[in-house]
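Listing S7. Sequence submitted for prediction.
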Amino acid sequence: MNAVRKVVLISDTHVGSEYAIWPPGITSNKGAAIPQNKLQRKLYKFWQEDCRAADDYGADTVIHFGDVVEGSNRKDGGKLLTAVSIDKQTEAFCELSKPLVRGRKFYAFVGSGYHHSIDTDIIDDIVKGLYTTEAKSAENLGSIAFLDIAGVRLYCRHGADSAVIYTSRKLEAEIKDAMVQQARDIIPKVDIILRGHLHTYNHVEKFGIHSAILPAWKTFAPDRIHLKNPMGMMPDIGMVFLTIYDDGAFAFIPKIHKLACEELSDILVA
């Protein structure tokens, strides 16, 4: 059994948020440095480790499952942003991604509409930028796509419902839904169902179909969504390697980093 494809799966980088990864060396339009905060320096260290691991792994493809940037964060009044400009967030993501996509196939999905832009297609801008400078090839896959990678069929998208509790039940339900639609000849055969959005890693297998939610690169943030259920919305940080073998078998290799919650890690003595 020999590996024929090695794929890096990433999602929810949310570049631009104060609580998400941000690369060094980015400057404002006036030339002033936009520095990393303490948390972003930790995340960037993890990112560098994973980029080196992808090189050692021999990855040939990178798939990003959406929410590449944070956007304008309108619902929180534009707060909690390292950079307000969508163009600057896009630039930062491209700079961050260069060592990961260099010489590899790169695919990206559109994420949540809230983190997108009504003025420009962020994914198109990123795909063009990285294809011009780094990636072997690059493609915007839109919102949903079926991919055949060495005979293994993936059903991919960004979104899932917002239920972060009991995600295994959701994954099993999606497997059953896929089986029903396959039996009706509505969709092609599926081996793996993949998505992001929930910022937590989970992987289940049932009836020969695998389903997984991918980790993120944004930590707990004190915003209106996370504060509804802090203990239930602690994210997993990292990426997943997917190895596909010549006999049709495949294996998931999660690269998950432990990171204390900056907002909730201090114990106060009352």
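Caption to Listing S7: primary sequence and predicted structure tokens for the chain studied. The chain has one domain: 3-257. The first helix runs from residue 38 to 57.
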